[in-house]
Design brief:
Number of domains: 2
CATH class of the largest domain: Mainly Alpha
Number of helices: 10
CATH topology of the largest domain: Four Helix Bundle (Hemerythrin (Met), subunit A)
CATH architecture of the largest domain: Up-down Bundle
Oligomer: single chain
Distance between the termini: 32 Å
Strand order of the largest sheet: 1-3-2
Number of strands: 3
Radius of gyration: 21 Å
Length: about 240
């Protein structure tokens, strides 16, 4: 996305997702958007169209651009997520993502324990090793990126091991969204003591062909994530 186009789109996305613009509100016309950001009317038009593509607004040609209700937003679009994580909508959105993960991943863990091939188990083990290796990457930013990518890959490999192609397709749709949503809940200091052992328990249950243990291990891991979310919510409340 072109930089000036992105800046205009992201600014209005933050206003919409952050609640400063409400459903039914009108956005300025193209000429006003162009003047505000110092861009051409063509770029302003593209920015408004980008908001529409993400479900944030409806562009009524020759009339106005109207903010849509939240249930029409594409909450798995990285730009929408970035806007949400930058403001007061972060905690409710993260809570909904965690609910999605519980619905999908607890059952997926049990199914993987029943169905995973030896090759899929080894792929899952390789992802866990990548998570461990990421802790040795130099530079905090590079380490965070490497760890989160390996973490997402672990969970994607788990779903792949279910053999359910439709479920895998669904997870691929949200992978990048989940990657972005993980950063506010990151706890680097607890990775060796909690995150890695929790993932190792999931792997052990899948390798042992134990669906019940896989469910328990995944539920315990997501309980930890819920704990981190509660801590994040308290920090946000204090900052407000």
């Amino acid at each position: 996305m072109e930089r000036l186009h992105r800046e205009a789109m992201a600014s209005y996305a933050r206003d919409i997702v952050g609640g400063r613009l409400h459903p039914g509100d009108s956005l300025p016309r193209e000429v006003t958007v162009a003047e505000r950001f110092g861009i051409s009317r063509g770029i302003a038009r593209e920015a408004l169209r980008a908001l529409e593509e993400r479900g944030l607004v409806t562009v009524r040609h020759g009339s106005a651009t109207i903010v849509n209700p939240r249930d029409e937003w594409d909450l798995f679009d990285p730009e929408v997520i970035a806007a949400a994580l930058d403001g007061p909508a972060a905690v409710p959105l993260l809570t909904e993502y965690l609910e999605c993960r519980r619905i999908v991943e607890v059952g997926a863990a049990a199914l993987a324990a029943r169905r995973a091939s030896d090759e899929q188990v080894e792929a899952l083990a390789a992802c866990l090793q990548a998570m461990e290796d990421a802790l040795s990457v130099r530079g905090a930013q590079a380490q965070e990126r490497a760890y989160h990518e390996a973490d997402v890959a672990f969970h994607a490999a788990l779903v792949a091991a279910t053999g359910n192609v439709a479920l895998l397709s669904l997870v691929r749709r949200v992978d990048q969204a989940l990657l972005a949503a993980r950063y506010p809940l990151a706890r680097p200091a607890a990775r060796r003591s909690r995150a890695l052992p929790e993932h190792a328990a999931i792997l052990a249950a899948v390798r042992g062909r134990d669906p019940k243990a896989a469910r328990i291990a995944m539920r315990a891991h997501l309980d930890t994530v819920a704990e981190y979310l509660q801590e994040h919510a308290r920090r946000v409340a204090r900052a407000a």
